[in-house]
Design goal:
The protein has about 350 residues and is an alpha/beta fold. The chain has ten helices and eight strands. The protein has a four-stranded parallel sheet with strand order 2-1-3-4, sandwiched between helices. It has a four-stranded parallel sheet with strand order 6-5-7-8, sandwiched between helices. α5 runs antiparallel to α9 and α7 runs parallel beside α8. The chain is globular and about 65 Å long. It starts with a helix and ends in a 7-residue tail after the last helix.
Length: about 350
């Protein structure tokens, strides 16, 4: 159906997948493979991909390639699980600047978000993890879903929605949501609190698209807690990867643009409405914070396959930023996050005394 819709367009249309980029070679490879899978499904329709930082091609280079293929209209998709700063500010700023400079028509699609496909992909990974574990029933099992973590409360709340949907899908005894950085609660302090619930089996599911240092961080912190509680069975589920349902969601986002059903969630957007606790961020200027590392191919020499997380120990890859939020290590000058010093949040990554034993 997408091919028919695009072929009926008056302008030659191409697809652009916009990613964040990573130092980890496997993560970059996985993103490229997803783009290749989409190209195979959309035969005859130009598909390119580009990154904000740490990998090439960058977004503008991918747009140049589409123009070289005589593309007059681009449907750009932020390949992000949820809409936070990258999807709302960084990528649109790059696309808008390019469109103004070249005159290329660019339609911006929705992020992956929450739909039956994404829940299906998540459920598949969780089921695989359950099947690897003991015969303890789901009703006696705790599910922990770990999200990326963001300064955007709407994006963070969506991870919690994923958790609840999976809890009801499988009938888990309990479900909780933790985060790998930026916000709270983080993995290690969060798991130490959850131990008190008394479950003998805990499934930890990183709700991430691709490999990388953050997925590795989740696994390492889980293993650290597991070592202190050997009587509890901890199972690490796999991240989403190029699951077929992820590909189906990308095609859904393209179709939404083509049929005019490309609606964004603005009612809970901290930049558009006075969201409680974030009122001062309404109307902030839309700009990219990645221009100084755009195209900087700073690949991690330690990560040829699955990310080990050892790069967090290297001097040239600082784990923490000057403000301690575990995110702005490129001096992005982001707007300050009100919960940077939360006792269960980012400060626990650099202050062992703040961790609850």
């Amino acid at each position: 159906m997408i091919s028919d819709l695009i072929n009926n367009e008056q302008k030659r249309t191409g697809i652009l997948l916009c990613g964040h980029g990573s130092r980890n070679r496997l993560a970059v490879k996985e993103f490229a493979e997803l783009a290749s899978m989409l190209q195979s499904d959309l035969e005859g329709i130009p598909v390119q991909y580009g990154y904000l930082e740490f990998a090439r091609p960058i977004i503008t280079e991918a747009l140049d390639r589409l123009r070289e293929l005589s593309v007059e209209r681009v449907i750009a998709i932020p390949v992000m699980l949820f809409a936070a700063g990258h999807a709302k500010n960084d990528i649109p700023a790059v696309l808008n600047a390019y469109s103004l400079e070249t005159g290329l028509l660019i339609d911006y699609a929705r992020e992956l978000g929450i739909n039956n496909f994404m829940i299906g992909a998540a459920g598949s990974r969780v089921k695989d993890a359950i099947d690897k574990g003991s015969v303890i029933t789901n009703s006696n099992t705790l599910l922990v879903v770990v999200g990326r973590g963001s300064k955007d409360p709407d994006a963070n709340s969506n991870v919690a929605k994923i958790t609840r949907l999976l809890v009801e899908a499988f009938g888990f005894g309990w479900g909780e949501t933790l985060y790998s950085g930026v916000t709270f609660p983080l993995v290690e302090p969060g798991l130490r609190h959850l131990i008190r619930l008394g479950f003998k089996k805990i499934v930890v599911f990183p709700y991430f698209l691709f490999s990388g240092v953050l997925v590795s961080r989740i696994k390492k912190h889980t293993e650290k807690v597991a070592a202190d509680f050997p009587q509890i069975e901890f199972i690490n589920a796999s991240y989403l990867g190029s699951h077929p349902f992820v590909l189906d969601t990308l095609k859904d986002r393209i179709q939404d643009v083509l049929i005019g059903n490309n609606t964004m969630n603005c009612s809970l957007c901290k930049y558009r409405s006075p969201f409680i606790g974030f009122e001062s961020e309404v109307g902030l200027k839309q700009q990219s914070h990645h221009h100084h590392v755009e195209g900087l191919e700073e690949s991690c020499k330690l990560c040829e396959t699955e990310c080990t997380g050892d790069c967090e120990l290297e001097k040239d890859v600082p784990k923490e930023s000057s403000n301690g939020n575990g995110y702005d290590h490129h001096n992005h000058s982001h707007y300050p996050y009100p919960h940077e010093n939360h006792p269960l949040g980012p400060v626990t990554l650099s202050n062992p005394k703040s961790k609850e034993k």
